[in-house]
Design goal:
two-stranded antiparallel ribbon, Spore Coat Polysaccharide Biosynthesis Protein SpsA, Chain A, alpha/beta, 26% strand, 7 helices
């Protein structure tokens, strides 16, 4: 399995001039994600999907020795579709802004992977997010509850062509380590209380 970190967004909702993934929470946000993936021992390689939107982030991960796949930076779905074309084995896709991600929760998610499903997304219940003071951006109904996306999916790129509709399966993991995405200033404040 390959780890693919999506780190080509603009980060405009954060405001300010610094690239979001280089903001420091003990160390740069992107470095927390890289460390979690590498320390898990679950992946044959770690790749960062970068774009022209984050030139300093791209340079930073290259300096760490991380493999990079360049995307056009036109949008998450488009960039992910382009990046997935580079791979022939299952891909653990993760947003580069999950500063609380650690190796243990990564191992838990990988262990839950069912290779018969082309796309599995990790969700957090809306109730859990509300208790944590987090407002989900995208909500999906799963079972009898509303859930928010975490930015983590496991995808079989050989079964997903041009991001056409595939049957998405879900796993709910109510855990702050996958719930706290750094998208807004409020998220940054919540991160400071973690």
């Amino acid at each position: 399995m390959i780890a693919l970190i999506m780190c080509g967004g603009r980060g405009t909702r954060m405001g300010g001039g610094q690239e979001k993934l280089l903001l420091r929470y003990k160390k740069p946000i992107i470095q927390h994600v890289i460390s979690a993936l590498e320390e898990s021992g679950c992946f044959s390689r770690t790749v960062c999907a970068t774009s022209p939107n984050g030139p300093r982030t791209a340079a930073f991960v290259k300096d760490l020795g991380i493999e990079v796949v360049e995307t056009p930076g036109v949008g998450y779905v488009e960039d992910l579709a382009g990046a997935l074309k580079s791979f022939k084995e299952p891909v653990f896709v993760v947003s580069g802004d999950l500063a609380l991600l650690d190796a243990e929760v990564v191992k838990t998610i990988v262990a839950l992977y069912d290779g018969r499903r082309p796309w599995t997304s990790i969700l957090v219940s809306r109730k859990f997010l509300g208790m944590a003071g987090i407002r989900p951006e995208y909500v999906v109904r799963y079972g009898n509850e509303e859930c928010g996306y975490t930015g983590i999916s496991i995808v079989n790129p050989m079964e997903v062509e041009e991001m056409r509709h595939v049957q998405e399966s879900y796993v709910v993991i109510n855990d702050r380590r996958v719930a706290v995405n750094l998208n807004t200033r409020k998220d940054w404040e919540l991160l400071g209380t973690a």
